[in-house]
Amino acid sequence: MDHQRLLARTKTRIALLRAAAAGDVTHDCGEDSFSLRDTSTGQSRSSGVTARAKEQLAAEWIRIGPALPQQRSQHQIEPTELGRRILADVDEQAERFLDR
User: Fold this and answer.
1) Burial of 6 (C-beta count, 10 Å sphere; 0-12/13-18/19+)
2) What angle do CA 76, 66, 22 make, to 5 degrees?
3) Contact 62, 47 (CB under 8 A)
4) CA dist 99 to 76, 85, 93, 95, Å?
5) What is the pLDDT of residues 46-64, one digit of tens each?
6) To which H or E segment does residue 98 belong?
7) Which of 8, 33, 47, 98 sits between 20 and 30 A of 17, alpha carbons compared?
8) What integer best gives the mean pLDDT of the chain?
9) Beta strands of the chain (E only): which ranges?
10) What's residue 78's pLDDT?
11) Number of other residues whose CB lies within 10 A of the CB of residue 98
12) What pTM was estimated for this model as a whole?
């Protein structure tokens, strides 16, 4: 896999994880897709995460919570403890990079 594709996949996964930590992601079990809510506009968009990324995210970084009250196929997403540590590490590395 080339460097650009790897970087793009990593950015997508981190963005999804960060949005999950903010409570801005739901999972539609009927369509098997993630929806990210844009807090600046209030609009939602579906995330194009590959099947492999979904497996990794669901197995390691995020957990799918209970169904939302008005929409039974929609579930709130939250990060696992590992997911929270990954975000903290990414933020720490970014701070170090910016401080150089």
Assistant:
1) exposed
2) 25
3) no
4) 35, 21, 10, 6
5) 655 556 666 666 667 777 7
6) helix 81-99
7) 98
8) 72
9) 25-28, 33-37, 44-47, 62-67, 74-79
10) 80
11) 7
12) 0.57
Q: Which residue's structure tokens are 């997911």?
A: 83
CB 28 within 8 A of CB 36: no
User: What's the confidence (pLDDT) of residue 76?
Assistant: 75
CB count in 10 Å sphere of residue 79: 22
Rounded Cα gap, residues 64 and 28, in angstroms? 10
Return the SS3 of 89. helix
Q: What is the pLDDT of residue 20?
A: 77
- Rounded to an integer, the average pLDDT of 59-81 is 75
Q: Which CATH architecture has domain 3-99?
A: Orthogonal Bundle (1.10)
| 15 vs 93, more confident | 93
Domain edges within the chain:
3-99
Task: Annotate 53-74 with DSSP letters as a single string.
Answer: HHHHIIIIIEEEEEEPSS-TTE
